[in-house]
Amino acid sequence: AQSVTQLDSQVPVFEEAPVELRCNYSSSVSVYLFWYVQYPNQGLQLLLKYLSGSTLVESINGFEAEFNKSQTSFHLRKPSVHISDTAEYFCAVSGTNYGGSQGNLIFGKGTKLSVKP
Amino acid sequence: DAGITQSPRHKVTETGTPVTLRCHQTENHRYMYWYRQDPGHGLRLIHYSYGVKDTDKGEVSDGYSVSRSKTEDFLLTLESATSSQTSVYFCAISGQLVGYTFGSGTRLTVV
Known about the structure:
Chain A has strands at 3-6, 10-14, 19-21, 23-26, 31-38, 45-50, 56-58, 64-68, 73-78, 87-95, 106-107, 111-116. Chain A has 117 residues and is an all-beta fold. In chain A, the strands form 3 sheets. In chain A, strands 2, 5, 6, 10, 11 and 12 form a 6-stranded mixed beta sheet that branches. A 4-stranded antiparallel beta sheet of chain A has the order 3-9-8-7, with no helix packed on it. In chain A, strand 5 (31-38) and strand 6 form a beta hairpin. Chain A is globular. The termini of chain A are far apart. Chain B is mostly beta strands. In chain B, strands 2, 4, 5, 6, 9, 10 and 11 form a 7-stranded mixed beta sheet that branches. In chain B, strands 1-3-8-7 form a 4-stranded antiparallel beta sheet, with no helix packed on it. Chain B is globular and about 40 Å long. At the A-B interface, strand 11 of A face strand 4, strand 5, strand 9 and strand 10 of B.
């Protein structure tokens, strides 16, 4: 079975500062990795995903994450945050074997990013 | 989200009453899931379905049952609601190569 650890429950930063949200996973099988974002009182939105290929993946709003297999990590970074990035961010993992329990999407507990002016 | 709807969006119910939440999809995806979201716990999988009448338990299945009599509908039932089941419930669907799509959520309050 897979599991996900998000190392920080809350991350406060000032506007235009860089930020890193940390995510580590454990799995006995090959994985797909995801970051979801949830703005206050809204549902989940997919931010970016790693399925295969380049280990560095990017979102349309400036976030990027790098899959590091040796360290079993998938940290999310942004070089300069905006007030509008204030949200809760969830890292998630699933096995690559579509179907069966190992294909289920398992979430971390979330990191609340608070961007201050 | 497009292709997946949850009903109701909000519900308040009394302890001990049965409650059914509905998830409806128009994508014809094989896999459907129910998660609950609680502060400090992220999203936890309750039950999932891999086809009509094929379901299995997730991480936090106690007190919940599910049914899937049609591809498009996945029902979550709280057999006898308790205050610990106050939560936001999300349904999700997935198809091979297309990833997961989440519904807008149902906010359930058990009083």
